[in-house]
Specification:
Layout: E1 4-10, E2 39-46, E3 51-55, H1 60-69, E4 73-75, H2 78-90, E5 99-101, H3 102-109, H4 119-122, H5 127-135, H6 146-151, H7 155-179, E6 181-183, E7 191-193
Parallel strand pairs: 1-4, 4-5
Antiparallel strand pairs: 1-2, 2-3, 6-7
Helix pairs in contact: 5-7
Length: 201
């Protein structure tokens, strides 16, 4: 298998509703302000070499070389979020046709349009809930807190958190590959049949 599972963390924090800004922390304009987020780290799992990888600004060309040689590029909300931040920060594009977005696949098989997000219908399909319903595992932190930790020089904490998100995404992808389904994140009594992507051998 030549898939690459990846996840990014951002540099600038997101102001949370009802929460005061933290002194000394830089913020972007919100979850849609991809151009001003920056990338702190990209973590990945390479199925070909069977190893986890870490990329920052200093070795981003290694990431691009790897991404060029792998397919599909697997993530969780990677098409709508990760790829847009990557394009804005590193000025190179990951084409959606090269990607397999597990969140988008969940939406599609549940009858939702992956290109027109509305919280009332599309909410509740996040990585934490999916991992918990399917494997009894939770994320180790939040994407909103990761940039705060990064700016506080808690670099190891951010990499550790990002790597765990990659591991959880890989678990979901493995189940799709091996069993062709995920348990519905909002209804633990339902099964969503999900088609695995075509892959290079």
């Amino acid at each position: 298998m030549q898939a690459l599972v990846y996840d990014i963390e951002i540099i600038k924090a997101i102001e949370e509703r009802g929460q005061p800004r933290i002194p000394g922390i830089e913020y972007c304009g919100g979850w849609n302000d991809h151009a001003n987020m920056g990338i702190s780290v990209i973590c990945a799992y390479d199925y070909e070499d069977k190893r986890f990888r870490v990329f920052t600004e200093s070795n981003q060309m290694v990431f691009w070389d790897l991404a060029r040689r792998r397919a599909p590029l697997v993530g969780f909300n990677n098409v709508r979020f990760d790829n847009r931040v990557i394009e804005a920060a590193w000025e190179k594009r990951i084409h959606p046709s090269d990607c397999y977005d597990i969140m988008a696949e969940l939406w599609k098989v549940d009858g939702l349009d992956p290109d027109n997000f509305a919280f009332q219908t599309h909410g509740g399909y996040g990585l934490d809930q999916c991992a918990f319903v399917n494997f009894g595992a939770h994320k180790t932190g939040s994407g909103a807190n990761a940039p705060v930790l990064w700016q506080q020089d808690k670099i190891g904490d951010v990499i550790d958190y990002c790597m765990e998100d990659v591991r959880l995404t890989k678990l979901l992808f493995d189940r799709i590959q091996e069993q062709g389904f995920l348990i519905h994140p909002k209804d633990g009594n339902r099964v969503l049949r999900i088609s695995a992507p075509n892959q290079g051998e």
